[in-house]
Amino acid sequence: MKDTGDHVKQLLSEQQIREGVGRLADEIQAYYQGRPVTVVGVLTGSLVLLADLIRVLDMPLRVGVIQAHSYHGPVTTPGPLSINTDLLPDVTDCHVLLVDDIFDTGHTLHALTERFTALKPASLRSAVLLRKSGRGEVSLQPDFVGFEIPNEFVVGYGLDYHDQYRNLPHVAAIEPEDIAEADKAAGA
Ligand code: IMP
Ligand code: MG
Q1: What are the structural domains, with CATH classification, of the chain?
Q2: How far is CA 147 from CA 65, 82, 95, in A?
Q3: For site-directed labelling of 135, which of 41, 106, 107, 111 has its Cα 20 to 30 A away?
Protein backbone atom coordinates (compact mmCIF):
# COMPACT_ATOMS: atom_id res chain seq x y z
CA MET A 1 0.00 0.00 0.00
CA LYS A 2 1.33 3.40 -0.95
CA ASP A 3 1.45 6.26 1.46
CA THR A 4 -1.54 8.55 1.96
CA GLY A 5 -2.21 8.88 -1.77
CA ASP A 6 -4.23 6.68 -4.11
CA HIS A 7 -5.59 3.99 -1.84
CA VAL A 8 -7.25 6.02 0.89
CA LYS A 9 -10.36 8.13 0.45
CA GLN A 10 -11.39 10.91 2.79
CA LEU A 11 -14.47 10.15 4.87
CA LEU A 12 -14.46 13.07 7.32
CA SER A 13 -12.70 16.38 6.77
CA GLU A 14 -10.83 18.30 9.45
CA GLN A 15 -13.72 20.76 9.59
CA GLN A 16 -16.32 18.00 10.03
CA ILE A 17 -14.25 16.40 12.79
CA ARG A 18 -13.90 19.74 14.57
CA GLU A 19 -17.67 20.19 14.49
CA GLY A 20 -18.22 16.60 15.67
CA VAL A 21 -15.83 17.03 18.58
CA GLY A 22 -17.64 20.27 19.49
CA ARG A 23 -20.99 18.44 19.52
CA LEU A 24 -19.50 15.68 21.68
CA ALA A 25 -18.18 18.26 24.13
CA ASP A 26 -21.58 20.00 24.33
CA GLU A 27 -23.32 16.70 25.10
CA ILE A 28 -20.71 15.71 27.69
CA GLN A 29 -20.91 19.09 29.45
CA ALA A 30 -24.69 19.01 29.48
CA TYR A 31 -24.58 15.52 30.95
CA TYR A 32 -22.10 16.17 33.79
CA GLN A 33 -23.47 19.59 34.79
CA GLY A 34 -20.16 20.80 36.22
CA ARG A 35 -19.33 17.64 38.18
CA PRO A 36 -15.59 16.88 38.04
CA VAL A 37 -14.72 14.08 35.64
CA THR A 38 -11.71 11.83 35.10
CA VAL A 39 -11.33 11.61 31.33
CA VAL A 40 -9.54 8.38 30.46
CA GLY A 41 -8.13 8.09 26.95
CA VAL A 42 -7.72 4.62 25.49
CA LEU A 43 -4.26 4.54 23.95
CA THR A 44 -3.12 4.71 21.32
CA GLY A 45 -6.01 5.51 19.00
CA SER A 46 -7.69 8.13 21.21
CA LEU A 47 -4.60 10.38 21.49
CA VAL A 48 -5.68 12.98 18.96
CA LEU A 49 -9.34 13.01 20.02
CA LEU A 50 -8.34 13.24 23.69
CA ALA A 51 -6.13 16.25 23.03
CA ASP A 52 -8.83 18.05 21.03
CA LEU A 53 -11.75 17.08 23.25
CA ILE A 54 -10.28 18.18 26.58
CA ARG A 55 -9.44 21.58 25.13
CA VAL A 56 -13.06 22.27 24.26
CA LEU A 57 -14.52 20.80 27.44
CA ASP A 58 -15.31 23.72 29.71
CA MET A 59 -15.62 21.80 32.99
CA PRO A 60 -13.41 20.54 35.81
CA LEU A 61 -11.53 17.44 34.69
CA ARG A 62 -8.37 15.47 35.06
CA VAL A 63 -6.86 13.20 32.44
CA GLY A 64 -5.71 9.61 32.65
CA VAL A 65 -4.76 7.02 30.07
CA ILE A 66 -5.10 3.28 29.71
CA GLN A 67 -3.73 1.11 26.95
CA ALA A 68 -5.87 -1.44 25.19
CA HIS A 69 -4.90 -3.07 21.99
CA SER A 70 -6.13 -5.93 19.93
CA TYR A 71 -4.55 -5.49 16.49
CA HIS A 72 -1.19 -7.16 16.13
CA GLY A 73 0.78 -6.46 12.97
CA PRO A 74 -0.53 -5.45 9.55
CA VAL A 75 -4.04 -6.88 9.90
CA THR A 76 -7.54 -5.42 10.04
CA THR A 77 -9.08 -8.17 12.16
CA PRO A 78 -8.53 -7.99 15.93
CA GLY A 79 -6.48 -10.49 17.92
CA PRO A 80 -6.60 -11.03 21.71
CA LEU A 81 -7.14 -7.86 23.73
CA SER A 82 -4.48 -6.71 26.16
CA ILE A 83 -5.14 -3.95 28.72
CA ASN A 84 -2.42 -2.03 30.55
CA THR A 85 -3.56 0.02 33.56
CA ASP A 86 -0.11 1.11 34.77
CA LEU A 87 -0.68 4.77 33.86
CA LEU A 88 -4.17 5.02 35.29
CA PRO A 89 -4.75 7.29 38.34
CA ASP A 90 -6.95 6.08 41.21
CA VAL A 91 -10.53 6.33 39.95
CA THR A 92 -12.38 5.02 42.99
CA ASP A 93 -15.47 7.22 43.61
CA CYS A 94 -14.66 9.34 40.53
CA HIS A 95 -16.87 10.03 37.54
CA VAL A 96 -14.98 8.32 34.73
CA LEU A 97 -15.44 9.11 31.06
CA LEU A 98 -13.67 6.65 28.77
CA VAL A 99 -12.63 8.15 25.44
CA ASP A 100 -11.86 5.93 22.48
CA ASP A 101 -11.37 6.49 18.79
CA ILE A 102 -13.89 4.01 17.42
CA PHE A 103 -16.56 1.55 18.50
CA ASP A 104 -16.46 -1.40 16.15
CA THR A 105 -17.49 -4.79 17.59
CA GLY A 106 -17.62 -3.29 21.09
CA HIS A 107 -15.40 -5.96 22.65
CA THR A 108 -12.81 -3.38 23.72
CA LEU A 109 -15.38 -1.19 25.47
CA HIS A 110 -16.97 -4.26 27.03
CA ALA A 111 -13.64 -5.47 28.46
CA LEU A 112 -12.74 -1.98 29.66
CA THR A 113 -16.12 -1.59 31.33
CA GLU A 114 -15.55 -4.80 33.28
CA ARG A 115 -12.08 -3.70 34.29
CA PHE A 116 -13.27 -0.25 35.43
CA THR A 117 -16.33 -1.51 37.26
CA ALA A 118 -13.97 -3.47 39.52
CA LEU A 119 -12.24 -0.17 40.39
CA LYS A 120 -15.50 1.18 41.84
CA PRO A 121 -15.83 4.57 40.11
CA ALA A 122 -18.79 6.80 41.07
CA SER A 123 -19.98 6.44 37.46
CA LEU A 124 -18.66 5.18 34.14
CA ARG A 125 -19.56 6.59 30.73
CA SER A 126 -17.92 6.39 27.33
CA ALA A 127 -17.39 8.63 24.34
CA VAL A 128 -16.13 7.65 20.90
CA LEU A 129 -15.48 9.69 17.80
CA LEU A 130 -16.76 6.99 15.44
CA ARG A 131 -19.19 4.10 15.55
CA LYS A 132 -19.28 1.59 12.69
CA SER A 133 -22.80 0.78 11.59
CA GLY A 134 -24.11 -2.71 12.16
CA ARG A 135 -20.94 -4.11 13.70
CA GLY A 136 -21.78 -4.24 17.42
CA GLU A 137 -21.38 -7.70 18.94
CA VAL A 138 -22.10 -6.73 22.56
CA SER A 139 -25.24 -5.30 24.19
CA LEU A 140 -23.34 -2.28 25.50
CA GLN A 141 -23.20 0.96 23.46
CA PRO A 142 -21.08 4.09 23.91
CA ASP A 143 -22.89 6.96 25.64
CA PHE A 144 -21.58 9.73 23.38
CA VAL A 145 -20.89 9.19 19.66
CA GLY A 146 -19.38 11.73 17.26
CA PHE A 147 -20.18 10.08 13.93
CA GLU A 148 -21.81 6.93 12.57
CA ILE A 149 -19.70 5.58 9.72
CA PRO A 150 -20.14 2.74 7.23
CA ASN A 151 -18.40 -0.57 7.82
CA GLU A 152 -15.05 0.35 6.33
CA PHE A 153 -11.55 0.22 7.78
CA VAL A 154 -10.61 3.78 8.61
CA VAL A 155 -7.38 5.57 9.43
CA GLY A 156 -6.27 9.05 10.48
CA TYR A 157 -7.01 11.36 13.42
CA GLY A 158 -5.35 8.80 15.71
CA LEU A 159 -6.58 5.65 13.97
CA ASP A 160 -3.91 3.46 12.47
CA TYR A 161 -3.29 0.70 10.03
CA HIS A 162 -0.21 -1.17 11.20
CA ASP A 163 0.82 1.90 13.22
CA GLN A 164 0.72 4.16 10.17
CA TYR A 165 -1.60 7.07 9.27
CA ARG A 166 -2.38 8.20 12.84
CA ASN A 167 -1.13 11.66 11.92
CA LEU A 168 -3.60 12.31 9.09
CA PRO A 169 -5.67 15.33 10.17
CA HIS A 170 -8.80 13.83 8.56
CA VAL A 171 -10.40 10.37 8.68
CA ALA A 172 -10.00 8.24 5.57
CA ALA A 173 -11.15 4.78 4.51
CA ILE A 174 -8.70 2.27 3.12
CA GLU A 175 -9.81 0.54 -0.07
CA PRO A 176 -10.97 -3.03 0.60
CA GLU A 177 -8.72 -4.60 -2.06
CA ASP A 178 -5.68 -3.08 -0.37
CA ILE A 179 -6.75 -4.48 3.00
CA ALA A 180 -7.30 -7.96 1.52
CA GLU A 181 -3.89 -7.83 -0.11
CA ALA A 182 -2.16 -6.67 3.07
CA ASP A 183 -3.98 -9.22 5.26
CA LYS A 184 -3.05 -11.97 2.84
CA ALA A 185 0.56 -10.89 2.89
CA ALA A 186 0.44 -10.93 6.72
CA GLY A 187 -1.08 -14.42 6.74
CA ALA A 188 -4.34 -13.25 8.40
P1 IMP B 1 -13.81 -3.08 18.97
O2 IMP B 1 -13.27 -3.77 20.18
O3 IMP B 1 -14.11 -4.07 17.86
O4 IMP B 1 -14.97 -2.17 19.23
O5 IMP B 1 -12.65 -2.23 18.37
C6 IMP B 1 -12.21 -1.13 18.99
C7 IMP B 1 -10.74 -0.87 18.68
O8 IMP B 1 -10.32 -1.49 17.46
C9 IMP B 1 -10.58 0.61 18.49
O10 IMP B 1 -10.17 1.19 19.69
C11 IMP B 1 -9.51 0.69 17.43
O12 IMP B 1 -8.24 0.72 18.05
C13 IMP B 1 -9.60 -0.59 16.65
N14 IMP B 1 -10.34 -0.42 15.37
C15 IMP B 1 -11.58 -0.87 15.07
N16 IMP B 1 -11.94 -0.52 13.82
C17 IMP B 1 -10.89 0.17 13.32
C18 IMP B 1 -10.67 0.83 12.05
O19 IMP B 1 -11.51 0.86 11.14
N20 IMP B 1 -9.46 1.43 11.91
C21 IMP B 1 -8.50 1.44 12.89
N22 IMP B 1 -8.69 0.87 14.08
C23 IMP B 1 -9.87 0.23 14.30
MG1 MG C 1 -7.97 1.62 19.97
Answers
A1: 16-150 (3.40.50.2020)
A2: 23, 26, 24
A3: 41
